[in-house]
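Input:
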Amino acid sequence: MQGIWLTHPAATFNETARTSALNRQGQLTKPPGALGKLEDIAVQFAAFQGVEKPNLQRIHISIFAADHGVAEENVSLFPQAVTAEMVRNFARGGAAISVLAQHLNAELEVINLGTVSVVEPLKNVRDERIAAGSANFAKTAAMTESQCQQALQAGRNAALRAQKNGAQLFIGGEMGIANTTSASAIACALLAESPQNLAGRGTGLDAAGVSHKAQIIAAALALHALDAQQPKEVLRCLGGFEIAGLAGAYIAAAQLGLPVLVDGFISSVAALVAVRINPSVRDWLLFAHTSAEAGHQRVLTALNAEALLQLGMRLGEGSGAAVAVPLIQLACTLHSGMATFAEAGVSEQH
Amino acid sequence: MQGIWLTHPAATFNETARTSALNRQGQLTKPPGALGKLEDIAVQFAAFQGVEKPNLQRIHISIFAADHGVAEENVSLFPQAVTAEMVRNFARGGAAISVLAQHLNAELEVINLGTVSVVEPLKNVRDERIAAGSANFAKTAAMTESQCQQALQAGRNAALRAQKNGAQLFIGGEMGIANTTSASAIACALLAESPQNLAGRGTGLDAAGVSHKAQIIAAALALHALDAQQPKEVLRCLGGFEIAGLAGAYIAAAQLGLPVLVDGFISSVAALVAVRINPSVRDWLLFAHTSAEAGHQRVLTALNAEALLQLGMRLGEGSGAAVAVPLIQLACTLHSGMATFAEAGVSEQH
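Output:
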């Protein structure tokens, strides 16, 4: 019965609060709709939080890190050691997501689900290594059934910690050399797309590198012969521990009624896995940005998602999601702080 | 010799600081280019501020308000009284831009360049009324030569105040019932576009309303027979006092070496006027967002500008620019706060 939680329904919205917030939007001193997407966000957060005037102060960021066996196929510009080195950089405050978390006063934790080498104990880093990296999916399944379950559960535990700490928003980040290869393979399997369409530059491959990466993915898809209707099996064969961790976290957050701000390509693929496992999760997901990675727009389209930002970012770590946080905060602040026509003595339209 | 300042060259950048910042970007612990536009912004602010590690704390917002004679042609859904009512709402903190300014800890001032009715003295509102609204440009020139000059100078004075207060960023906002009609007319004259292409919904006109607005503009363009090579004359005949104020502020800010974050459609048209009067101004302008107003993208294209945000906003007041401020702050914070590969002991690419 392990993993039975995965398909439990997501929390329901507070429709009364949504209606109150919608009414309030119509009374604020601006033409109806003039704040565009910021109005939708405010109303959505009212429904999430069950209050007419939502706010966003407490943000939880969990970064899942793991190595990928497929890195030995020469699919990344960076050596595999970088995964563990970046875990240290996250902990010491030098990485992009560390700087952003500090600026946003967000809670940041790193969950090491399987770097190749052991990382010494570090502040805010949880050692939950499942194995010394996933297996090379070009040759065999990336995870065993039990490893995949363990990674999903690690994600769930992160969402539970976030809720316990009073988080109002969950952001997942990832770090793992070669994980755009893994994410692209998963997206191809779930969307029946060819690797030529979904494989991208990752950390900066040239055209020949992208072509090689697409070939590795194509061969792996042929090897595993997966069924798009079995998303957990797709995840197990092609995923990394960190992608499974993200998917588990998204599912659990939705079940807990904790909204999720999804980052870039890899996170969106994890979101796609989560929604395919449990469609009710979708309502609790917001999408922060469209990244520069080739396949991201395709994955967003499959999720019927429109991202908030288009800044050409492609870093991962949860960085794009963190950059979008101020927009949500401003949306809530405008919604709660603006005067109504009646309060301000401003004439309404003819 | 009044107005001779308009064509003085803009300040020059600090190229040494730009080069240092570019070098630093290449050493930060991320793949080159992975922060997308945020990297460009950080390097640009390094050049603006003359330091390798820029920051953005002090933001100045000047809202120019004025009424438009063309409002009598039935081109807006809202009564003209709203301009003065919104001046009060700005001052009392209930308007969108007031809420945003408070959240950003920005300096906010309102410059009344010509509401139809006198507004009682209010905190942070400067009474610089040139006339009881501009003249109806469907019948005659909107401003006299001297009124236009006075409005441009009022804008310049705002930029001078901002600099004196140590501002690191200038945001201009506007309020004036019927001013999308004025801005659309100016854009048509400067870009040789037809009103059918550039007239938009403003505060929310339906298709018939937009069509009527386009007809009013077309007739006015025929009446004034303007030359696109004479941008000041285009401004004088079709502009509002607040659009001239914005144009003057942008020109002066660039001359003072104070970067400008341009808001939506009306502000971008003022930026177009400013750049046509003085092309050197362009280098100091950043564009915050692409609004939902029909003609905005066309104006941005003419300015060779790519806006940071696309949120479907169409409120004016400087609100879209204020919403984009956190992105610039995060860009600077990331640039200044991230560790280099050497500092973090992270391996560089193969």
